[in-house]
């Protein structure tokens, strides 16, 4: 990429009015506090809160469209892995925000659709292509079409080395200096891939060893199909993170249901707990952990929402709703009157998708006539499922572990019902804790880089959110509706067209939903993905705030020319009259259909008062050269007393850190521990009815040390010509052909094809058995100026997952006459993640089975002969000898824009 300069974005994605309001709202005197639409992001990774925030954070500091598209391609490479896609409601999930926050399981078609969605929201034209056993997207800018493949992490240029090639360019016949003038099909794929080991080599950032010859075949012009009629895209989801009194949310960047690298990498030994993942029905129809297909990718992490509402009169203000409930000092909550049903409902909005829940409660039941029940709802109270009922008197503990009842939801209502026939005091709720497990995409959580990091903590408008996102397959569409007409559905989503449509195409069909909230609704944002093929069809979005007496049309669309693509996505915003707490929304269709729909109501909370919050990052630093030794775990807790806020965290060590977790909570809120078991029957519950005592928190670094440092800046590598290509070489011992290794012919190591970066890819190179320690002598044919000398080789197992200690040592010597050699030193085999160039795409499992290692002298050396003295106690496989006439590393900042940066 060329040198890139700063820019001012065309749009700024924050609502300044709400920002100012929150800055003024700093008051710890409020009895109950709540921060809505909270975000904690760093300048080390993108902001995945919503589509606009993601685009802003990734692209705002890049001036040209090509640079913006490259940056998006780079971060999308990191945000997902090539594996069985997550199927939700019958569709492979291509909504970027949902995937990047919660899942990350994507195949070529899924990430191609997600890229189309992102580019479209940038105002760019897109195309969606099926090629040979593969799917890729294209984007138009600067008068040309350009292909960015985030499935294989591959991009190609035209022969000019600058212009990103399009689909029809990559596979067609061509020739240039790079191929020695040889004309052949797939010329661009073979010789102009920017993310390959070499011309005619292998992709570096794929899911397995994939050659450029295979890629050339994928782009066969005769078999490339432009799917003009749809884009496999989706969008509309956003990350809704709020914080109330009594809540603590900790995102763990590893799975919590058992984590052992050796076991996980052996799929036969892999075990997981259903309460910690959303099952993927796309796995051959089996509801399996999506991680089980590719355990080596380490995608899944888990979050834990801990909520302990205060069972007091003031604490009731945080309840979603309450009916005939009273609070007594030290006694918790009880019915306000005898003989009347009483209920209190609490809402859990989990931000990330919920997978399981544990509800722990303590009741006092003095009479067998008194009733106490617990129920949950994932349909905003439209349907309830009772999960517990008191069956004895005295101090009655309850512990309910839920999975299927809440799995896949983002909003869960927990209802406590009580009724006393005699005295109101005969039944009381004395303790309540709700722990909700979430699934997170570990690749996209806020990161910390080596050195100085800027952390941003801010909030959007002070509104809570109610979302309807129904499954439209079969009869499941009926779960949330209050009225329907002339509707039919498919039992299984076909993917390429609508799943729901009019039963009689000549008549209007509609669905009606009722959205009720405890606070005034400020606005609706509703819409979906439409199958808009029929030129005589139409779609309408309507709403009613008077129980259906009158309807307001918010949007109408037609497609009189029948113009594709036939998967139109539209979301309409409608402001609501003051005082609206119940609204009907109608999806009306004539000859059109729906792939999916989503409706969001933003409403005012009971109390949006600000209270200082604590943000805690925990990470592990690498100190020293050996993976597994010299690891130091540290954390940093920041007291945020106003919003928006910025602060810095300095990370030490010798290489890239691993962030372990991110926790947010209000100041003084303890993270309650859910007891393994409730007290025995008849025994008092010793847990207090109110809050636990405020914990003693140490602000700043856990060890009290600010290690200082500057912002980490990566580097961009530019490699010169390999002078060894086509030259002769000898070895002190011939290689072997075990394990399908290439035969010893004196050509393999200088054929110009650098082997794949995967273990066990021995067919691409020559192999020597343990302790053979070959001495390889390269003859460059004439005195040559060499800026870097090295080899591409496999070091069996020692490079896996950032191991910095290689067993193989290689000394380099040079000579002008082939008789007298002078030593230059050792090839640098200290592979550190911080040194990996930004433009070298790591494989999906982040292992390095093979890599090109160099000795770079202070000044270029002139020599004809280069001798490589190999010392290896294990198998040694070399795929290419390297003698470069130039090598350059330049600082390269990925330029993440924080929300308050223009």
What report would you give on this structure?
By secondary structure, the chain is mainly β. The chain has nine helices and 53 strands. Strands 23-20-25-15-12-41-38-39-42 form a nine-stranded antiparallel beta sheet, with helices on one face. β48 (809-815) and β49 (822-826) form a beta hairpin. The longest helix is centred in the first third of the chain and has 15 residues, at 65-79. It starts with 15 loop residues before the first helix and ends in a 10-residue tail after the last strand. 50% of the residues are buried. Mean pLDDT is 91; it is low at 1-30, 677-691 and 797-804.
Structural class: mainly beta
Physical arrangement of strands within the biggest beta sheet? 23-20-25-15-12-41-38-39-42
* Number of spatially distinct domains: 5
Largest sheet: 9 strands, antiparallel
Question: What number is the mean pLDDT?
Answer: 91
CATH fold label of the largest domain: C8orf32 fold
Helix % is: under 10%
Q: How many beta-strand segments? A: 53
The CATH architecture of the largest domain is: Roll
Distance between the termini: 23 Å
Secondary structure layout:
Elements: H1 16-24, E1 34-35, E2 38-42, H2 51-59, H3 65-79, E3 81-82, E4 87-88, E5 91-92, H4 96-102, E6 105-106, H5 108-121, E7 125-131, E8 134-141, E9 144-147, H6 167-170, H7 187-191, H8 212-218, E10 225-226, E11 243-244, E12 247-252, H9 261-264, E13 280-283, E14 286-288, E15 300-307, E16 321-323, E17 325-328, E18 332-335, E19 342-349, E20 353-365, E21 371-377, E22 385-389, E23 394-402, E24 411-419, E25 427-441, E26 451-459, E27 464-468, E28 481-485, E29 487-489, E30 500-502, E31 509-516, E32 521-531, E33 538-544, E34 552-558, E35 568-575, E36 582-590, E37 593-603, E38 613-622, E39 631-640, E40 645-651, E41 658-666, E42 700-701, E43 714-719, E44 728-731, E45 766-768, E46 775-786, E47 788-795, E48 809-815, E49 822-826, E50 850-855, E51 861-871, E52 876-884, E53 887-892
Parallel strand pairs: 3-6
Antiparallel strand pairs: 1-11, 2-26, 4-5, 7-8, 7-10, 8-9, 12-15, 12-41, 13-14, 15-25, 16-19, 17-18, 19-24, 20-23, 20-25, 21-22, 21-24, 26-40, 27-37, 28-31, 29-30, 31-36, 32-35, 32-37, 33-34, 33-36, 38-39, 38-41, 39-42, 43-53, 44-46, 45-52, 46-51, 47-50, 47-52, 48-49, 48-51
